[in-house]
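Hello forum,

I keep getting stuck at the same step: I have a sequence, I want structure tokens, and every attempt I make locally crashes halfway through. Rather than fight my setup again tonight, could one of you with a working pipeline run this one for me? It's a single chain of 414 residues.
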Amino acid sequence: MRTLLQALAATASVASVAAVRAPPACDQAQVTAAQQLIDRVLGGGGGSASFALSCSNLEERREGGSLPSFEIRASPAGGPISISGSSGVALASGFHWYLKHSCNVSLLYGHQSIAKAAIPSNWPAVPTTVSMESPVQWQYYMNVCTHSYSAAWWDWERWQTEIDWMAMMGINLPLAFTGQEFVWDKVYRETFGLTRADMDAHFAGPAFLAWGRMGNIRGWGGVYESAGVTGLTPHWMEAQRQMQKLIVARERSLGMRTVLPAFAGHVPLALPAKFPGTKMGNNPCWGASGFTGQRWSCDGLLDAADPKFTQIAEAFMLAQKAEYGSDGIYNGDTFNEMAASGNITEWGSGVYSAMAKADADATWFIQGWSLNGWPTERLNAYFAGIPAGGLLSLELSCVTSSSSFLKFTSQLSP
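Reply #2:
Ran it on my machine without issues. Output:
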């Protein structure tokens, strides 16, 4: 069986302490979702009728585990072109492979459909059966910053186009960060008694959401005092909530598992005033891009040993699950581009144990590349309290700098 090597410009290597839950098994709902994707890519009009899609279990032929796979059976010119796959994503990948290699056609990134002039009037034959298998179980997609710099402005049509492209590229583990401000706002105000003004000062604006979420900045881009804008509006947060519901539903319909946010310790500065005695310090004032003063940086960092840490984490994750469901994988980065402080083992085990209290099967998904400068001893201490199977480490810069990735993987058991 040949190996499928997807050209994924925005994907990354993922190291796992142990195997996490396998992707959902292919079913008729995923087949239907893949058929609908084909119709969209071919410009509507029932183009998927030329493709016979079905679930397969090609991965069962391998010894020792399962990997995403598809098969395009030998077919005469004109179709129907028969594609079987291990998931909706695998079926979409098979469809894309056929377009590229049999039809010499590609879908331009960011475009919903192929130009009608490029669609063959008679589908080319598949002379011999093509069987393809991914070299890895998980194909991850999206930098956290993409959800600020680009996706914060997308409507549903643009998101639908992106998800279709993900599926055709074999992506089965996408970051799903949209709509979390709605949940944070609800939890902090309804459960912990903070005010709208407290949250206005805390949330970064749409173009800077990633840096606000990771505790690097607060308020920046969301507060325009001269224009009377005091923060993210309830209308905007509600719109993002509805968008996230559409996003995760479509991704799961194709057999993807979503990576949702978790609590990493970053809190509004108003928290101690509401709860005297709270052990809260400040993140180091972030030096990037001139954010050196306390007005827009030096966000609140709740001590992992404080009881409120687990309470906030659990309240957020339960509220998030009620809104968007869960696939058991959560991203949380406490020290992104910031120096770590305090008991490092306490921080690592604190983030994970708070996560696991709300979801016993939780897997912590961390941006391992951001820890590249950490010495081995500190990395070992940070992850000492995480059980096997509890960690996925993302290495976005593995091609040029992979010290944390190599340190993790060199110590892993098969």
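Residues 1-13, 15-19, 407-414 have pLDDT under 50 and may be disordered. If your local run keeps crashing, start a new thread with the error log.
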